[in-house]
Amino acid sequence: MSDTVIEVENLTKRYGQTTVVKGISFSLARGEIFGLLGPNGAGKTTTILMLLGLTEISAGKARVLGYDPVREPLAVKRRVGYMPDTVGFYENLSAADNLRYTARLIGIPHDQREQRIAAALDRIGLGEVGNKRVAAFSRGMRQRLGLAEILMKDVEIAILDEPTSGLDPQATLELLDNILALKKAGVSVMLSSHLLDRVQSVCDRVALFNSGSIALMGTVADLGRQVLGGGYSVEIEAQGAGLADRLALIPGVSSIEQVDIGRFRLSADRDVRPEAAAAVVEAGGRLYRLSVEVPSLETIYTRYFQGAKQSEGARHAA
Amino acid sequence: MRREGSPWQGLGVVILKELSDHLTSVRMLVLSSLVVLTAIAALYGAIQQVRDSTAEDLFLYLRLFTTAREPLPSFVSFLAFLVPLMAIGLGFDAINGEYNRRTMSRILSQPIYRDALLFGKFIAGLLTLSISLLVMWLLVIGMGLTWLGVPPNTEEMLRALVFLIVTIAYAGVWLAVAMLLSIIFRSAATAALTSLGLWLFLSVIWTALAPGVADLFFTSDDPATQIIAAQTLARLSPGTLYGEVVLAILNPATRALGPVYLSQLQGAIPGSPLPLGESLLIAWPQIVGLISAAILLFVIGYVVFQRQEVRA
């Protein structure tokens, strides 16, 4: 069995004259958490729907677990769990009854059904309220019920569309824990979001969507290097004579800036904290604080889209 | 390009779920009690009338369905008017309800085709209507037995059975209308209002309007042509078709559903009943018309639904 579970090549979606997804290519490895990030309307949901065979593909190729979502949607949908943006359930039915309906649609054998439903509800922390009507459920509980459905389905890939939108911080953390648990169980996860800092903590790799195409793709650190240039920013609080010159000599440091008396900021292409500490000590200085700023997805994102806008503005001006 | 797998996968599951939803819903309870109560009222009037007037009648039982006593209309007129209401009540939020509850994409991401969802919903609605109509039908037969004290003969039972089947087909037409509108309009309220408007227009206004429209577009010296044109137009309403079938089936003396020349009546014995086969033959175009209207409307809905985007 191959290690790539989703392979997308030049995937395109057109609605009449407008192209919503413009020839994107990416792949998802087994057991990986892959984040589709980008502003609303960037084509994330459309991409997901094409992968599930729920909307037609205008051009390009997609393979999910080796199946073609256009011709073999049932095979794809049997092995992939999908939680839509603001997932809905039948309000007049209990949580367990909702899962029972899905279980019958999936075709889970009768003798396994109850046990799998109970196990899924327990794992997600809804075991106690399984027989309550969904009408009484909060947003967070519904999202969790959506995950329980995926757990019950016992899938190889879970696709989650905006799983954290509209959740309070506590519920978001719980949901992300559940997503990590999915990964531990060997499920590949693809999730879309515009909430960056939360997503950063769980994603192995991300793709940044910008109006229908993938602008950037890779690990968060990779993206930081691509967008922010130097990548690492080390801040030092130390006192001593000639420190600035000594610090500037450290290999890998591209620039040094004195922020305040006794406070320096180094831009470097790697984490130079050990060398900086050694330099301060060697110079006979006193070291008070040493910190590195890991590039956050938020910074990358805003910086990238600012850059994109500026270059666009320049083009318009020209 | 062929897609893999059967379009019927999951159909049974959808039917059972929708059926249990319908049968336990408050809406269904309200609608069926409304229909049953009015039916009983009409039936009571009919029984009084039958007792008073008809001493000797070959088809006493069928009179239960068709006899009216002022101020109430007959049982069949009630059905012709209220069955669409029931069907609309069951169908107007079939598809847009799934979108509004945001369950559509979740259900369609399970290993089923859209076909199963749509067809399952239609079948479940039709089954629900059939169950209520069957109950009502048995109620009429039973009340007739106790109040009239005369058992129905075979011919009457057969005719009553055909009447039941045709009524279900008539309900199917309106169910298909309501479901089509629930596919077209994303708002359940719009779909409900539009189907109710259509129902009022076709049941009440169109029958009155058809002769006028015929006068506008056809000018002929022969009054028969004019009448036939008006009748053809009126038959665009499922209510007209249903009324004609009921007339032919429940009134065995009916010999034609259109205008008849005097010359055609030569040799006929007025008032003598036709056998069931002949009555069926007279109403056959109307029966086929009702069933094909239901199928046609369903197919239009099916095509629209297949092309619809899943995202809400």
- % residues in beta strands of chain B: under 5%
Global shape of chain A: globular
The Cα radius of gyration of chain A reads 24 Å
Span from first to last CA of chain B?
Answer: 27 Å
Low-confidence stretches of chain A: none
Order of helices and strands of chain A: EEEHEHEHHHEHEHEEHEHEEHEH
Mean pLDDT of chain B: 89
Number of helices of chain A: 11
Describe this structure in words.
The complex is a heterodimer of chains A (318) and B (312). Chain A has 318 residues and is an alpha/beta fold. Chain A folds into two domains: 4-218, P-loop containing nucleotide triphosphate hydrolases (Rossmann fold); 232-293, Alpha-Beta Plaits. Chain A has eleven helices and 13 strands. In chain A, a hairpin with a 2-residue loop joins β11 and β12 (263-268). In chain A, 41% of the residues are buried. The model of chain A has no long low-confidence stretch (mean pLDDT 87). The mean pLDDT of chain B is 89. Chain B has helices at residues 11-24, 26-53, 60-66, 75-91, 96-100, 104-108, 114-148, 154-184, 188-217, 223-234, 238-250, 276-307. Chain B is 73% helix and 0% strand. The chains are: A alpha/beta (318), B mainly alpha (312). The interface between A and B is medium-sized, with 34 and 26 residues.
